[in-house]
Structures are given as C-alpha cells and as structure tokens.
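Colleagues,

For the teaching module next term, I've prepared a clean inverse folding example: a structure given as tokens, and then the sequence designed for it. I'd like students to try predicting residues themselves before seeing the answer, so please don't circulate the second half yet.
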C-alpha cells in the first residue's frame, strides 16, 4: 500500500513511518524543510512540501492509497492547525482516505457528567490549553467534510514515547482509563493502532480513540 505521512519526522510521525515500513508499505515522508530529509529512513521517499498549500498537498497525494497527517504546529502557533488540516482535506482527491493524528480535547471524562478533556476546568495544564482548543476545532472541521474518507484518531490523556507492545483498547467518544486510573498509550502503540486503521478501515468519516 502507498502511504504518505505529513509531519514524518515529528515525535508521532517518525513512529508512524517506522510502523508502516515494518509492515512492508511504500512510504512517502513529507517534511517542510530540505534539512529534514536526512532524518528520514533510507527506505522512505522524502518530499519537501508546504502543507498549507492545497496544490502542494495534491502533488504529494497522487497515487497514494492513504494520507496520514501527524502535523503539529510549534508552540505559540497552535491556531494554524485548522488551516493546515483544511489544506490537507482540500488537496486530497475525492474519496481518498485521510487519517489524522488528533487530540483528546473532544473526549468525555468518565464520571464527570458530560465534561470533556477541553471543558473540564481542572483537567488540562495551562500549557496544553491552546493545542487542545486547536484540536477541538480540527475535529469539528473534519466533521463537516464529505469529500474524502477522513478518520480522526484521538489519543488518551498521555501520549508519550515508550515501547511497542502491539496491544491497545478501542473506544469512541470517552477517554479510556486503565485499571490503575491512568489514561495513556505509548506513541509506538498509537502508531500500531493508526496503521491497523490504515490497513483495515473501520472508522471512515468517524472519530475513535485508543488506550491501554
């Protein structure tokens, strides 16, 4: 399968690249600067593109079976996430599958009477509020999209580097919590879940979440 990954050298993006390569897929890694090409594995076809330009997105999307966006704007520029998401949706071909590394902002908190990760007043640290608002807006944009077969994968509360176990639980709109009350998954297992969805679509034009 031909898979293009935007943000291919970011924390999550590089793990998506590794997982896709390990499964034998043809991977195109899109980066924003020439200097970042050296960070891609040798088996990846590296492309420099401005993802804010739908025409450049369209060029990278040609002959691809699945598009995966792992883009995260730098701190202080979180509001650009929506425009970048819109450009990817506009640049994709009609009916093409587009998978987004989403945020947890939209998820309901168990036993909190309808409060979400974003709306609960005491849940998020101050440093995460801006990106949470951007991710909520990103999700709402995806919900209005009917041209492409989008999927939005929300992580649990904690998404950190770790080990690849190959195991995870699936959820829909509620934060997944383990037996110790923790909501977490490694970036490696998040990548497993994303590639499972890429290979076997179960959430077209829907959002879902994963966790241990």
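(Answer key — instructors only)
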């Amino acid at each position: 399968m031909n898979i293009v990954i935007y943000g291919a050298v970011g924390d999550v993006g590089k793990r998506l690249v590794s997982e896709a390569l390990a499964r034998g897929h043809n991977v195109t890694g899109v980066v924003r600067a020439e200097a970042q090409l050296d960070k891609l594995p040798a088996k990846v076809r590296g492309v420099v593109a401005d993802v804010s330009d739908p025409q450049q997105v369209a060029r990278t999307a040609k002959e691809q079976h699945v598009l995966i966006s792992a883009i995260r704007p730098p701190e202080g520029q979180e509001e650009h996430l929506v425009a970048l998401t819109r450009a990817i949706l506009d640049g994709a071909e009609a009916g093409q599958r587009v998978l987004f590394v989403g945020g947890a902002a939209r998820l309901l908190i168990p036993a909190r009477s309808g409060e979400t990760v974003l709306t609960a007043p005491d849940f998020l640290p101050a440093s995460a509020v801006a990106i949470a608002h951007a991710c909520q807006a990103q999700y709402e944009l995806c919900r209005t999209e009917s041209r492409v077969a989008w999927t939005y994968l929300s992580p649990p509360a904690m998404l950190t580097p770790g080990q690849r176990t190959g195991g995870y639980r699936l959820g829909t709109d509620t934060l997944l919590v383990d037996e110790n009350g923790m909501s977490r998954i490694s970036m490696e297992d998040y990548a497993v879940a994303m590639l499972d969805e890429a290979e076997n679509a179960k959430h077209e034009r829907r959002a879902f979440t994963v966790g241990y």
